[in-house]
Design goal:
It contains 36 helices and 27 strands. It is an alpha/beta fold. The strands form four sheets. It has a nine-stranded mixed β-sheet with strand order 8-7-6-5-1-2-4-3-15, with helices on both faces. The chain has a seven-stranded parallel β-sheet with strand order 18-17-16-19-20-21-22, sandwiched between helices. It has a six-stranded parallel β-sheet with strand order 11-10-9-12-13-14, with helices on both faces. Helix 2 packs across helix 21, helix 12 crosses helix 18 (451-463) and helix 33 packs across helix 34 (868-876). The protein is elongated, with a radius of gyration of 35 Å.
Amino acid sequence: MNTDPDRAGPRPPHVVMVVANDVRSDTRVRKSALAVAALGARVTVVGVTTAPRRWDTVLDVPPPAGEVRIVRIPVDFALSRTRKDRRARLHRGEFPLLTSDPRAEALARRRLAVAEIDAQSLDGRAASVRRAAVDARRFALRAEGAGRRRVASGAKLGFKAWDRVWQQVPVAASPHRIVPEVDDLELAVGPVLDGLEPDVVHVHDVHLLGVVARSVARARAVGREVAWLYDAHEWVPGLSRYGGRTARVIAAWAALEKRFIGEADAVITVSPPLAAALKARYHLARRPGVVLNVPPLGARDAGARSVRVAAGVPDGVPLLVYSGGVQAARGVETAVEALVHLPEAHLAVVAVPSVNTAPVAAVRARAEQLGVASRLHVLPPVPPDQVSAFLSGADIGLIPLRHYGSHEMALANKLFEYLHAQVPMVVSDCRAQTAFVTDHRVGEVHRAEDAEDLAAAVLRILTSRDRYLTALADPDLLARYTWHTQANVLRGVHRELVSRVRPGVQLAADPGTDPATEPPERLVAGRRPDDDPPGSDPGPGAGDPALRASGPGTEPVVLAVGPANSAGQGWAWARAAERHLDDVAGHVVAIRNGRYDYPADVLVDPERYRDDAAWQLRELADARSRWTHALFEAGRPIFGGLAGRDFTGDAELLRAAGVEVGLVMHGSETRDPRRHRAREEFSPFADPRDPLTKKLQAKVDLLLPKVAEFAAAGGPVFVSTPDQLDDLPWATWLPVVVDPVRTAPGDPVLTRDVPLVVHAPSNPRLKGTDRVEAVLRPLADRGLISYRLVTGLPPAEAAALVASADVVVDQLLLGLYGVLACEAMASGRLVLGHLGEALRDRVGRPVPVVEVTPRTLAEVMEHLLDDREWARASAFEGPDFVRAVHDGHRSASVLAPFLGRPTDAGVTDPGPESAEVTAR
């Protein structure tokens, strides 16, 4: 449409509709936009999105109607999250003055240690006095900590009790304090609304009421005339209570409505009772107009498949349907309970917006508990313009609302959708819907929350269904309750507002009808989130990676791994995914340690990683704009101290930005010392009082429940060595990766008179170095071997030494093999280590590591020195094993499902399996 006023007359009026959702399933907003566009106005719908980027679409409306553009704005609900987090901390008893400071306590213990050492150097009375002083200070420190904990525990109980009462107090409920998301929305949506320069603003529901009022005030302050309309979707003071929606929260939303509703140039709402209540409560000069939430005429013929087909219920079997949001206040569990009294009936729940919500899970659980799960069918929603056609396959539609003030006045969308689907309905005895169903004789009424009474109402309809179908087929009834009638009311309100701000503009006449189906929606800017309904036309710019529609297998993957990069494996996994999977790019973030630094895309100093907020925020911004997937190593956060000490805070940030997250564990952080010593004879954790064991146990006890919770919620967890599956049985083994080219086989082993034996422990305590030394040092002293203990060498030098060895002794205590063993095998070296039968079975092919323990190491060393041909044959099998399991193919195949890539990039069989290598 040409909008140049010099060539095509005055520009069409610009109507902006704003709503605090993503507009995809909000039928009222979408129908309203199309209805106003039919007047020739240009309509922009502004919604919000949880996607990391703004994305814009247009509805392909045929001329002469105006353009309809839908803009989704990302909102970072930081203020809202801060309030929720603060309340959660108080509920946990974390009070600022009562929570202990671990660093201060550690310093105090150090000072006590110094004082105690000093006391030991004295004698006589001075020593006694000094020791008494130390004991007194130690007692005071413990008493202070215990006192704080007791007071904090009491304060926690007190706060919970007070908070339960306070949340029911509706007095002085400031929206800025109680629902700070109004300010988050202001920061995100307000500037966009100002930039659109509307003539008329139509705000749907209460959430953005203040944003619109302030934007209109700013426009008027600079001399631009703007009118605005408030569309009250619900009776806010009587909203249903569930979850965090307490009486105080409801009072805050009601206070917001009260503050701004009087400034609106017009008010409309969804039912006559609600219109009367709004006028009375807020002393409005005019009674709000009523625009019912009804479908367009002909919606039943939209061609959608039937709910009966989707649920798989045969013809002739009674099928009840509930369509809409699934929450406790909607009474869906009452409908499920009614199935107990209706043994032949099935219930389909069309869950909006998704079948994957906690309330839906609760409904499923209730059905399981009652033994009716086989007759419950939870279905995803269909496009808004296909709802009535979809529902027409059911026998009865249900609206089992519980009694709340908003429900007493509600004439819900689904009531009219059932009407147009010509499905008789059973509704609870909330006032407005009771009057509608009774007056028009299109259904029956049951007592709210009474499952037996609901079942009785269903049976009354099933026994005389033709009577209700006759009433539903009345053409006058359908004509009265069709969207075209309601759209004309809405268009009348907009005509009045446009004439007020643009007196000379002529709008088109009301159309003779409104279409039963929506025009196609086309992407014009940004990138669709992954959960956008399939089949949408990507539109112009689809070839541009920055604009094209996304989805599993279509969007280029950026896999971030960090921050440990232990033994260079973060880098190795990322590069393996790049080599073996299509359209995957790796990005590795690693903390610099100054000694064992492996390659990384971002190498950050520990202090900067921990404390530099600017660096943390820049990395987060980069992640939100580029990453699609992230693997947290060892349970640590990638963004330092930005969101907490472990992975959970960062995972929440990345998920909010649409990034898929997983965990990859390296060992010590999740290897349970308590369980390890129970299953391993030579476990390094045999003494539970050992300081290292206690430290590792505390670390595992803290992290393992969080990893388990992550996995239980569907998060993928990988482990770098198979032994970790003993502690994480639901995890997936992600084999370590070594470069077979860089570690190509060298000269045959054991050709020298005095073979070189290397032991290179990353942690001598855990690898059993003292046991290794006890065997190998005497052999070296006798001149039978040349022995090198490798510690502190840079990775390249250590690898070169390993490649030059004849024999590499890996570890004797843990029951695993890792990167060192793989590099040694790839180089054709003979590797000795303790793996155990369980681990060997998990690998799926013989592992050419000679099995040794502290008890057998000496015997095996003597055997290989006596039978060098056997040893060379054993070492010869190493390179083939590494190529089959650890060259990156298998690891890429393991990562493929997580990255949304086909798994055919996996392992190819390298050939016949060789016999397992063990000492004879």
